[in-house]
Amino acid sequence: MSSATTGNARSYFESRRTGERIRKTIMFLLLAGAGLVFVVPFWWMISTSLKTMDDIMQYPPAFIPKHWHFQNYLETWTSIDFPRFTLNSLTIATIGVVGHVISNTFVAYGFAKIKFRGRNLMFSIVLSTMIIPGFVTLIPQYILFAKIHWVGTYLPLTVPGFFGNAFQIFLLRQFFLGIPNDLIEAAKIDGANHFYIWRRIMVPLAKPAVITIALTTFQGAWNDFLGPVIYLNKESTYTLQIALQMFKASSGLSQWHYLMAGSVIVLLPIVVMFFVFQKFFIEGMNISSGTKG
Amino acid sequence: MNTTAHSGSKRRKKPMSLERKEELQGYLFVLPWIIGFLLFTAGPLLFSFYVSFTNYDFTSQMDFVGLRNYKYMFHGDPLFWVSLKNTLFYVVLMVPLTTFASIALASILNQKIPGIRVFRTIYYLPSVLSGVGVYMLWMELLSPDTGIVNLVLSWFGITGPGWMFDPNWTKPAIVMMKMWSVGGGMLMYLAALQGVPEQLYEAAEIDGAGSLRRFWHITMPLISPVIFFEVITTFISGFQIFQEGYVMSSDPTTPGSPMNSLLFFNLHMYLKAFKVFQMGYASAMAWFLFVVVLFITMINMWVSKYWVHYEGGDGR
């Protein structure tokens, strides 16, 4: 009787284990199949960028280019002033990162660790601004910047970053709340003021969150299209995004090898950044989703 | 490091109370945000509300015209309805598909399967990329002659559509592109899934609950706050679609082409504001969209009472 039960139990667990193995194999195949779909666009972009015009014209298009035409990159890079546009994008993105990191850690510290009247009300206003579509404030902002003669400069693209961003304030505040108050009290007893605590204690402790917002700011500025389209009017000041759009319009939708080479050039810095800082990209998402629950 | 400031305030006749001082510093710290809010959000919001009742054209005139812009919007501008329909079509297609895809991917990734880190990276990478480079990549992938999508379809004997050249397929094509970057949402859900206590599943399994029931009765309620947040933000960002219509138009000189199928609401507004400088009318459009987004967010919040589950039940 009892041996029968153990036998049953064993077969139960064994069948469960094989069932589990089959299930995992199916899951793995699903993941791999979907993974392939996600990767193929990258391969297609690179392989197209290496084709010659003859390869492009050929139908059906080849997965692997017949000749690896690396000089497409050189030709693209020199056909319009890519070095200049890269420098412009880099300048705007770097200033953006500095502005966002300073202002948002500063403001978030105030909301997280200093008590003052109206704090909760103000913070709920911070949160509610997140649902305002950017286009509602776009036109008046443009008018404002036009009146003070900032249109045509990088100022409209960089200065607002020094005045806080709702989502980043929210994220950093959440991070700061997790840092024990005892630390601040101890620092105060040692004579530190809030400015010192913010600069020397909180920002270093919040390094993962700070790096995350620095990365997303850089990425956002690098990819920004609307801002430069509206505010920049001289070709020498254009960013990579505008330049690429210009390049696309001028070369028409047929010289795909050049267009893909241009896309690779513009996307590559972000891809490299992603692989170098992958941990922070993923950690940042964890911070924000962990706090949303 | 701050001794001078401290002794300075102490030497004053009426020393400021510590709490008062603390409070002032609090205001000092949030001051950048207050200035930014007044200058770049609240001020512009009010100004654009006022402008929406004028015929402001940026250079010469700014006369109060009452509701004329709003009347023109509903009764005089056929492209307003076209752009609204395009945007709604896109949002209605994109929000459920991306939400479903990101939850599905996250659920599969949450299993103990070899190579999970590699898969996570692969799925996540496209979502950090955006902008003109990505749009051009997708125009090439979807190109009828040189793209891979129609090539793969042809292996199955299917003649693919003209995608970006066929007004019926431009918006589904953009949704497809968005599906490629579901990685961001996926990661959010993955983090939420990893926060679900293992014991709950074990207990349910002992009680004989199958995997579907476990998902529905344990996983879903516990990750519902994240779903709620994601759905709201996806809706809001979906209504703001603009660049795709501008950049991915088949004719570069006509944003929104072919046949205005990519003329999204914000693109129409942008063209009105910055190409023909009807800033009064564009502001009216902006406010209309704002109200629509607000309305949808409120509906979402109201409906959330019935399906979003908060641990501890304190509504946070």
UniProtKB/TrEMBL annotation, chain A:
Transmembrane segments: 26-46, 90-109, 121-145, 151-172, 205-222, 256-277
GO biological process per UniProt: transmembrane transport
Keyword set includes DNA repair: no
One protein family per Pfam: BPD_transp_1
Residue span(s) of domain ABC transmembrane type-1: 86-277
InterPro entries linked: MetI-like, MetI-like_sf
Keyword check for Cell membrane: yes
Keywords: Cell membrane, Membrane, Transmembrane, Transmembrane helix, Transport
Subcellular location(s) per record: Cell membrane
Chief localisation class: membrane
Topology with respect to the bilayer: Multi-pass membrane protein
GO CC, any one term: plasma membrane
Recorded family membership: Belongs to the binding-protein-dependent transport system permease family.
UniProt name for this protein: Carbohydrate ABC transporter membrane protein 2 (CUT1 family)
Automatic annotation (TrEMBL), chain B:
Keywords: Cell membrane, Membrane, Transmembrane, Transmembrane helix, Transport
Annotated SUPFAM superfamilies: MalF N-terminal region-like (SSF160964), MetI-like (SSF161098)
Domain ABC transmembrane type-1: start-end pairs: 84-300
GO biological process: transmembrane transport
Protein's membrane topology: Multi-pass membrane protein
A single Gene Ontology CC term: plasma membrane
Taxonomic lineage: Bacteria, Bacillati, Bacillota, Bacilli, Bacillales
Family to which this protein belongs: Belongs to the binding-protein-dependent transport system permease family.
Transmembrane intervals: 26-53, 88-109, 121-141, 147-165, 177-196, 216-239, 279-303
Localization terms from the record: Cell membrane
CDD domains to which the protein is assigned, alphabetical: TM_PBP2
Protein name: Carbohydrate ABC transporter membrane protein 1 (CUT1 family)
Keyword Transmembrane helix annotated: yes
Principal subcellular localization: membrane
